[in-house]
Design a protein that fits this description.
The protein is α/β, with parallel strands linked by helices and 261 residues long. It has one domain: Rossmann fold (3-Layer(aba) Sandwich). It has helices spanning 16-25, 41-44, 55-61, 81-102, 117-121, 138-157, 179-183, 188-200, 223-228, 237-241, and strands at 7-11, 30-33, 67-70, 106-112, 160-166, 168-169, 185-186, 206-211.
């Protein structure tokens, strides 16, 4: 870790993943949390508010920032096009353009398994990062857009862009009984680990990486996540359910996927 703390902006820091990262990273980084409604009184004292659809407000967040962790946006796979257009399309463009203008080195983008979700609906596994995108919803489409826009900003402007295709983050994964969710579970501890590696990994300037725990029925390839980012998951769904349950080929996905995911 460098002598002076890296300044990191977390957009959407009031959500579950954002709050987790703020709390776990603030000892090692100068964390600037962004959001609308603070999650607690302590966060209220630090929270920076900005409408991501207002470019000037977004640019004001970037002062001195080295890395942006971009989590903000509509997060439901059941969202409509109008739901994702502002926060996930216009908002992301504003974040990337503001990062470029302010000289930010790297943007870590919270993409999603839903960028490839039609492979899951059709049970066409395994899924690799180099496969063509197949979003399962307008939310998934917005994540594919984000990955493509990040590629443009990397190629055209040299902005480092790391997209994490996040699985399913839940404190208690047994709150759902779908095998496909258990297979893509990302524990809170592994969430911290993968984002730390996305911040710190040297020699990587662009990439698409699955972010999932060490689950036995995982159908999504993490070879490049482990080799390029140095990510080593330490948690597994089997540790929670106290049994080793391997299903050859994986259990069938619900026909209404991604509804309820």
């Amino acid at each position: 870790m460098p002598d002076s703390k890296r300044k990191i902006l977390i957009t959407g820091a009031t959500g579950g993943i954002g709050l987790l990262l703020e709390e776990r990273l603030m000892a090692d980084y100068e964390v600037v949390p962004h959001g609308r409604t603070p999650a607690n009184d302590e966060q209220a004292e630090r929270l920076r508010k900005a409408d991501l659809e207002d470019y000037d407000e977004v640019l004001a967040l970037m002062d001195g920032v080295e890395v942006v962790i971009h989590l903000a946006g509509e997060a439901s796979p059941e969202a409509t096009w109008d739901d994702v257009l502002g926060p996930n399309i216009i908002g992301l463009r504003n974040v990337l353009e503001a990062a470029r203008e302010a000289g930010v080195r790297r943007v870590v983008f919270a993409s999603s398994n839903h960028a490839m979700g039609m492979y899951d609906r059709d049970e066409e596994w395994p899924v690799y990062p180099h496969h063509l995108p197949r979003p399962d919803s307008f939310y998934g489409v917005s994540k594919v857009f984000g990955e493509a826009l990040g590629r443009y900003y990397h190629d055209e402007h040299g902005l480092e862009f790391i997209a994490l295709r996040i699985g399913w983050v839940a404190e208690d994964p047994l709150e759902a009984d779908e095998d496909v969710l258990h297979a893509m579970w990302l524990s809170e501890g592994d969430t911290e680990r993968i984002f730390r590696r996305a911040i710190e990994a040297d020699g990587v300037t662009y990439g698409l990486y699955y972010a999932i725990s060490d689950n036995p029925n995982r159908r999504w390839d993490m070879t490049n996540t482990m080799l390029e980012l140095g990510y080593r998951p330490k948690d597994s769904i089997d540790d929670v359910r106290k049994e080793h349950n391997v299903v050859e080929g994986g259990k069938d996905t619900p026909d209404d996927w991604p509804e309820g995911s």
